[in-house]
Each structure stands twice: as structure tokens, then as C-alpha cells.
């Protein structure tokens, strides 16, 4: 569908580029729920944009941190290009009210996954209309404010691993994670997951994927236990607040897990599903 001049001007201002083919903007803003056929939606652009976005971020990290190993760069890149971060970029740019969706959605209640997809689609639209240099400039303007903090904290801490370490230190076994709710259509569901340690259940947390929700649930549990402070990716963990015996057990557990990781052994993980209450 064609777009109005105000929407076009707003997008061109965000991207710092005047489009020769404004139809690319219209396509990037059109969700599959509205398009008459899926090929007219932003899904194809999203696919291309994901690759362009990932390449630009990876290249930037490779050049910026010449001493970082492959594992570190992979973690930071994965964080910066994650669907959750794309949704954050989209929200910062004010894209949600501009996305064209079908019945059942509204600009104020769009799932974050739709906003993130739109961001990637716009990266592709810019790439197709103006080339890689223009796409690179936009991506780096958007991502750069997040790069240093992500690097300093090594992407994001594996909160599930920390919670497992804590649970074993206080003799409560292995944490479990229950899916207690899910929302959205099949192609863009969000999940609510609750972490449990022994007989203690913590507040459920939402995520765009089950894995993301599990990480958020683990962090919420650590906060409730008084062992975590701050916002991701700058969360601080305070295992020294455990009792001396528990600290010793946590240290032993951490060492054993590191040894198992080095030898290729998988760490235990328990995930279950629960009906929403």
C-alpha cells in the first residue's frame, strides 16, 4: 500500500536518505497480517535486513576489538542483533505507530517481535535503495551507543547458569522453568516463564522466545534472592552475599562446570511446561 508524505518524510529523516523507490518503505512497514499475499509484506525484507544488519555489526566488532576472541565477538554480536534489541531500536526510533497491521493489532500493543522485524526490514530497504555504505551508517548510528556496555559485560551474563550455581550452593538442586502463559499469533509468540528453586516459585517474566524468557526469569529470581542488581547488560551479581558455606559450594560448582565445559560435557537443564493459571 502507498504511504503518506509525512510517514515517508519521517522514515527518510530517521534513515538520513531520500528514497528513489518509496515503495520499499511501504513494504518495510507492512506486516503479514495486513498484506493480501505474504510476498507483499515485510517478511522478505526482514530476511535480507537480518543478514545485512548482522554483517555490519560483525564487521564493526571485528575491526573495533582486534584482541577479542571468536567466542566473545559472537556473544556481543548475538546480543546486539537479537530480536529483543531490534525491538528496542525500533521503539527508540518511534516505528511502532507507523507499522501497518491487520485487525487484532494496534500501534500501542504490538508484540515486540513485530517492531523488531520492521527495523530489520527498513535496514534492507535502505540497503536496496542506497547501498551498503548508507545501510552501514544507519546501523552504526543506531547500535553504537550499545556497543561499549555490551563489550564490557561480555554480552549478557548467563543468568540461568548463575541461578543453577546458587541453587546447588544452597542445596536446592537444579532450577526448573515453567511456561505459564503465551501470547500472540504462531509466527510471533511471546512467552511467560517462571523459575522455581525447590519449593520456591518466582515472578514470571516475558520474553520473545522461551530461552529469552528463561534468562529473564532466572535474573528475576536472582534479584528476589538479593543476589543481582542493575539492568541488563550491566547487571552485577553478588555471590558474596551467600553464607560462607554456600559461597564455597558455589565456587566448587563453578569450577566443576568450567571443567565440564572444557571437556565438552553439557550442563544439566530442566525445563517444563505449565498451564496458565
Cα radius of gyration in angstroms: 21 Å
CATH superfamily caption of the largest domain: Ribonuclease III domain
Tally the beta strands: 7
DSSP helical segment count: 10
Helix content: 40-55%
Strand coverage percent: 5-15%
CATH-defined fold name of the largest domain: Ribonuclease iii, N-terminal Endonuclease Domain, Chain A
Structure classification = alpha+beta
Question: What report would you give on this structure?
Answer:
With 277 residues, the protein is α+β, with helices and mostly antiparallel strands. It has two domains: 5-152, Ribonuclease iii, N-terminal Endonuclease Domain, Chain A (Orthogonal Bundle); 159-273, 2-Layer Sandwich (Double Stranded RNA Binding Domain). It is built from ten helices and seven strands. The strands form two sheets. Strands 1, 2, 3, 4 and 7 form a five-stranded mixed β-sheet that branches. A two-stranded antiparallel sheet has the order 5-6. It is globular, with a radius of gyration of 21 Å. Residues 255-277 have low confidence and may be disordered.
